[in-house]
Amino acid sequence: MNGTAIENFVCVIFNVSFMNCTWHVGRSASGDTQYFLYWKTSKKEDFTGCQNYIKDNCGRHTGCRFQNVTIENKKAYFLVNGSRSGQSIQSYMKTIILYRIEKLTPPSNVTVNCTEASHGCEIQWQRPRTSHVKKDGCFKYEIVIENKVDPEKNIKTTSKTERSITGNSYIFGSFSAEKRYSVKIRATDNGCLVSASWGEWSTPVEFGKEQLISTSSYMLFLIAVLAASLVFFLCKVSIYLKKTSSTVPQPKDPFNEMSPTDFQTEYKNLLMKYETEEITIIEEMM
User: Fold this and answer.
1) What is the pLDDT of residues 148-177, one digit of tens each?
2) At 90, is the secondary structure helix, strand, or coil?
3) How far apart are CA 109 and CA 213, in angstroms?
C-alpha cells in the first residue's frame, strides 16, 4: 500500500565506529505498523537484522544503533520492511557509501605556545580519529580564534576565522599579551575518502594574558623560587643543629671533675694523713 514505507532515512557514523540510522513512519502507516531494518556491506553477504532499535512513543521502530562499524572503502546496503496486522507493507532500500556519512571527530591535543618577543602564537593539533584514514594530508581545517570580552578594559568579543588550512599547525600573528583568546578547530576532507561535511568542533582552548610568561620572566621567577628554597633549607638545618646540640651530653673532664667515689677516697686519705701527723707530733713532745 502506498504511503506505508518509511521516509527520510538517514544514517550517520560518529565517534569512529558508532552508527545511527533513523527514519520517519510512513504517512499512511497505522499505529500497529512495525518496521524492521536489515543491512550488509557486500552484495555477496546475507542481510543482518538490527539488534538495537530506537522506538517512538507507540513502540514502533524508528531507528537502529550500530557499534564496531568499519568504513574502509565500503558501501552499505539497507533494507527496511515491515508489517501491519499481519499484512506486508512497502519495503525501502538504499545504498550508502559509508565514508560520506561520517561525522569527523574533533582534532585532538590542541595546544598553544605564545612568545612575548615575537608577539605570535603557534597553534598545533593532531588529525581527527577515523577507522580508515591515517594520513595527515587527508584533512584540511577551519580555525576560529576569538578575542574574549574584557569589561574592565572595554574590550568586546571579536573573532577571526581561517579556512582551508592544511597541516597540523597555524601561526597566529595578531597576538597581544593584554588580551585573552580562545581557539577551536574542526576538519573536513582534503581530497581523500573523507566526508566532505565539516566535523565536530574541538573543545575551546584559552590562551593569553595570565598564561603568557616570557623567557626572562620565567627565569627570574625560577631564580626567586630556588633562592627561597635554599634559605628555607638552611633555616631548617640551623634549627635542627641547635636542637641536637642541646640534648647531647657534654664529655666530662677527668682532670677537673671527680666522681662521688673519688671524692670519698680523697677525703679518707686526708683524714689518715692528718691522724698520722698528729701522732708524730705527740711522740716528739714526749
Assistant:
1) 776 566 656 677 888 889 999 999 987 887
2) coil
3) 21
Cell of 17: 565506529
pTM of the predicted structure, to 2 decimals:
0.67
Tell me which amino acid residue 193 is.
Answer: L
What is d(CA 227, CA 45) in angstroms, rounded to the nearest whole number?
73
Cα–Cα dist 132/103, whole Å: 13
Enumerate the β-bridge partners of residue 143.
162, 185
> What are the grid coordinates assigned to 242, written together?
641547635
C-beta of residue 47 within 8 angstroms of C-beta of residue 79: yes
Non-local (6+) Cβ contacts of 153 within 8 A are 178
Residue type, 226: L
CB contact at 8 A, 131 and 16: yes
The one-letter code for the residue type at 183 is: V
CA distance 155 to 117: 23
pLDDT in tens, 12-26: 999 999 999 999 998
Neighbouring C-beta atoms of residue 64, cutoff 10 Å: 24
Distance separating the N- and C-terminal Cα atoms of the chain: 165
Using CA atoms, how far apart are residues 72 and 46, in angstroms rounded to an integer? 19
Rounded to whole angstroms, the Cα distance separating 166 from 252 reads 85
Beta strands in the chain (DSSP E): 7-14, 18-24, 33-40, 48-49, 53-55, 61-66, 75-84, 87-88, 92-97, 108-115, 120-126, 139-147, 158-166, 169-172, 180-189, 205-208
